[in-house]
Write a structure and sequence with these properties.
- With about 270 residues, the protein is α/β, with parallel strands linked by helices.
- The protein has 2 domains: about 5-30 and about 115-250, HAD superfamily/HAD-like (Rossmann fold, 3-Layer(aba) Sandwich); about 35-110.
- It has 12 helices and 6 strands.
- The chain has helices at about 5, 10-20, 35-45, 50-70, 85-90, 95-110, 120-130, 145-150, 165-170, 175-185, 200-210, 235-245, and strands at about 20-25, 135-140, 160-165, 190-195, 215, 230.
- Helix 3 (about 35-45) packs across helix 4 (about 50-70) and helix 5 crosses helix 6.
């Protein structure tokens, strides 16, 4: 009989130590734009749009952003119009109607965040990960309301810490926000795994400081891109088991040497 068999608590502790600490993005990973609300709003402007279209167009917009960064090796300075207005145009509203609908949506966003929406399978997956012994925290580019949104959706209890860019004063992909989390949680970069939907925000930002990254690609738009990816959070528990068995099979540091100039870099 081995020492571990004599001391199951010690064995369980050793297994937990081997698991990567999960650092999760929020928007597009756990929280999503309220597709049902936007669908109803489009309907008031004479457009019958299925709710899921807004979910899909978000990820097409993210892919467009990542393609822009990949080809130009620089980030956009910012959006020229509200995010909701872009989505309304992408799902088929006219320029004028998209602007009108966005005005209503942005007023609602000030009162109640448009990103306060999730799917039942998100909560189910978080519960599974917790039950399997994974520790988790959030690193999110947000407006200071992520922790409140997680509370409202009964997800806050799954996470040890929430690093909201508006609260901590630095945004992904700047190294400082990842380093803050690592230092605060007492982690080395290789002990963590970052999971997010924006390739050049989440994965590159994490890889830049040595944190392995896993990319979410719900629509299969990044098939020929480098790195490791899954469709959405539902595949994460199974992927983690495969990763634990043979980590060398997964290119989780694919952007370690990708060079981009960020504002504030020396």
């Amino acid at each position: 009989m081995t020492v571990d068999e004599l001391n199951p608590d010690l064995q369980r502790h050793a297994e937990e130590e081997m698991k990567p600490y999960l650092l999760l993005d929020a928007g597009g990973t756990l929280l999503f734009v309220d597709q049902d609300y936007l669908s109803r709003l489009a309907d008031t402007h004479g457009y019958r749009i299925e709710a899921r279209r807004f979910y899909e167009e978000h990820f097409r917009l993210v892919h467009w952003f990542d393609t822009y960064v990949s080809t130009r090796r620089q980030f956009l300075s910012g959006l020229s119009e509200p995010y909701s207005q872009i989505l309304f145009r992408l799902v088929g509203l006219s320029e004028e109607e998209a602007g009108r609908a966005a005005q209503v949506a942005e007023v609602r966003h000030e009162r109640r965040n448009l990103w306060e929406f999730t799917f039942p399978w998100i909560v189910e997956t978080l519960g599974q990960l917790r039950d399997e012994g994974y520790r988790m925290s959030i690193i999110s580019n947000a407006d200071g309301r992520v922790e409140e949104e997680l509370h409202n959706l009964e997800m806050r209890g799954y996470f040890e810490r929430v690093y909201d860019s508006e609260v901590v004063g630095v945004r992904k992909p700047h190294p400082a926000i990842y380093e803050l989390a690592l230092n605060d949680l007492g982690l080395q970069p290789e002990e963590a795994l970052f999971v997010g939907d924006m390739f050049y925000i989440d994965v590159w930002g994490a890889n830049r400081v040595g944190i392995p990254g896993l990319h979410l690609d719900p629509l299969g738009l990044y098939e020929r891109w480098p790195g490791a990816r899954i469709q959405d959070l539902r595949q994460l528990p199974a992927w983690l088991k495969e990763y634990a068995d043979a980590p060398e099979r997964f290119d989780v540091l694919s952007l370690r040497d990708f060079s981009l100039l960020l504002e504030g870099d020396e």
